[in-house]
Fold:
Amino acid sequence: MDFNTKYTPQSWPDHPEQVTLEGKNKFLGFWLFLAGETVLFSSLFATYLALKNKGPSGMEFSTQTLFELPLVFVMTMILLTSSLTSVYAMYHMKNHNFKGMQTWLAITVILGIAFLCLEIYEFNHYVHLGFTYGQSAFSTAFFTLVGTHGLHVAIGLGWIILLLIRNAKRGFSLYNAPKYYTASLYWHFIDVVWVFIFTVVYLMGVVG
Amino acid sequence: MSSIAKKKGFGASLWDYLTTVDHKKIAILYLAAGGLFFVIGGIEAMLIRIQLAKPDNDFVSAGLFNEIITMHGTTMIFLAAMPLLFAFMNAVMPLQIGARDVAFPFLNALGFWLFLFGGLFLNLSWFMGGAPDAGWTSYASLSLASEGHGVDFYALGLQVSGAGTYIAGINFLVTIINMRAPGMTYMRMPLFTWTTFVASALILFAFPPLTVGLFFLIFDRMFGGNFFDHTMGGNTIIWEHLFWIFGHPEVYILILPAFGIFSEIFSLFSRKRLFGYSSMVFATVLIGFLGFMVWAHHMFTVGLGPTANAIFSVATMAIAVPTGMKIFNWLLTIWGGSIKVTVPMLYALGFIPSFVAGGVTGIMQAAAPLDYQLHDSYFIVAHFHYVIVGGVVLAILAAVHLYWPLMFNQMLSEKLGKWTFWFFFIGFHCTFFIQHFLGLMGMPRRVFTFGADQGWDTFNLISSLGAILMAIGVIILVVNVIITIVKNEKVGNDPWGDGRTLEWAIPQPIPFYNFKQTPLVRGLDTFWIEKQEGNKEGMTYAEPLSDIHMPNGSIIPLVMSFGLFVASFGALYNGEKDWAIPVLVLGLAITFASMAIRSIKDDHGFHVHKEDILKNEGGNK
Amino acid sequence: MSHDAHVYSKSQTEYEYTRRVRREAMRGQVTTFAIMIFLTLIAFSAVAAGFSEYFIVPILLLLAAIQVVLQLYYFMHMSEKNHGMAAFFLYSGAILGFTLFLTFLTIVWWN
Structure:
């Protein structure tokens, strides 16, 4: 068995991402990376909470005046749905349905782009209000936390698009299956982080 | 690609090292680069001691002195001690567990080049308007006020080299979890592998907070952020927390592999199984866990309140328990052993009293009320040099002698090695023991000079004389290395005669695929077991001879790291020079483009054929 | 290493069986998704309804925790075997992260 072996749906292994040693290593290494990312985002969240609503004396901005929930709700729905579409993609990967996987991943990408556009719109809106990056400790912490998440979304999109284009004509192999799998793990992790962002930053911000 | 090594020209060998993904060659790169930075950091130390040798000295100015102490600390921790330990982890750990390479050979190379470019960037500050001068801890109130670009070099350089360390940590973890040979259960792993494992786990969790902290510093200084600026609502204590949440585990990232090295040495040269193996493993894991729960003991005097101080005080003292277990286990390993006092063993024997002294002063500082007295005095300087030099540096020097034959198939001179040891060891105690008393007499850290009427001149002079002895020791080591390389006498495998673990069983020079057949591990100290049973080969094999799959070399890691090096210059001059942003974009473009190329270009590696392996075998005999 | 695994072709019955198992699992995933959407709706509407802060905040955090567990165990397949090490490291990271939260909410020395 080699990386170039062609498979049929019958011979395609149950866990194609973990058949080769390279695949196993990628799988575990990526989970460990996510564990490190957990600490990274925890640091950003903790800093945000410490600096929330802190600014020069007489600052007009606060979480309660700034955030608008309808936009955040739409963004949340989009990102949650993109999580489901990437689950569908992995479902088709296990069934050795290449077209199905590519299609669902393409939908994931479109949803991701929509999310990113909304986030850019939101940031732009805040900047126009005068809530710029250097306006206060609060603004710096807010843009850094949410922006780091946005950067992860952008990197995830670039990664998935690259995979889609590169493998468009090649179909499945044990070489690219782990790549697809880790990319989808990454996408889910982005969603996990967003769950905390919409809860801790936006919802708890509006509450007070 | 043929597996048989031919005589190569200089250009070809250079290209080989620039593109290598072989863990043994990367180990040599780490050793060379770490050694270079060790010498640079050592020269900085000498300058400090020359300045402090007599009162009211004006050998260096106050500003330059601040730059020197900052760079001495930063270089020694990030660019010397860690990379040197990585050199031995890379060289030894995969061999100890019976693996053909690490889990991610490409990332292994990337980690090295990131470290090297980060380190070069940091040291370029000397020639580009002044080095960082806010101390290696770079507390925010001080570092935000620091003029010039020194602190920018610090933040960007450490960010790049920290990324390399993080990658190396994940790589070692996956290697140890996934690539152990058949029969190598967790509880049969040599202690050096165990400590590498725990230290890598600490890297995985300790480096993200540092990354975040450094990004905050970069944003605050270069991009108009307000994390630490209290007039804008920021909070300077955030830096201290993030730094020490990284900084304290960092101490254990350094000392645990050192413990691992000494465990190997004690067992090897006492010719006994390590006493209390399972309790050693338990103690290692426990130290790793507790290491994360004590960072605020660096911040007792910040004013966190009596409750926080009490909690962190108790947690800190608790670490003495597993460390004490280790000390007693080492003593009991020597007890009744058939001891050979070689150079590595000398270092190990010298390590125990030195490190215990450092540990005891650590307990003293763990008591928060006493720490208020000792804080920021030379007592602290003495303490951490006792654990870092008395622990980590002695371990690195011991490992250089111990593993030199494994890495280069040559033996360093034992005679010169003993000279190095005695100069270094006596010089070390001479330099730092007296600093305890300087601290108790009230001499503060980080002062560039002192008055003749303060009564500190004799002790400072003694301390400086000790530093000269240490320098002589290191010079003898360098001479030893040069002589050994020039002589180039091959020694073969198991040169110490009493190797216990797999790495000594492999025939020298070690083929690039390490093991022609994956070994079967039959117990702790597997090579010892095979030798006792009269197995001439030294290994039992778990598989028949077959083709071996190996990764291809690649220049991409170097290019990827170089991109970040370029981008760092862009970030550094942001808002000051017109070309700053284009350079930042260009650098990031180089990095991302090389990542894309790595992703798009298939790299299946290559197979070494059975016939070539057999031919290779014949060639070596 | 990579070449020592062997290609195994499933029989027709076996193949249909795994397809069915997967289809059912996928249905479970969709249910999970529905629950997650539902939890999100509760969270947003609770805030919009404007209940007391001391009532809402714990509920919001609980809902977030449930959603993350669903995401991890179903969408990211952490419930399947072979995830022991992944779970161990992820939880270690989470515990450290929690310590960070606690620290930054208590001892960053505000007053």
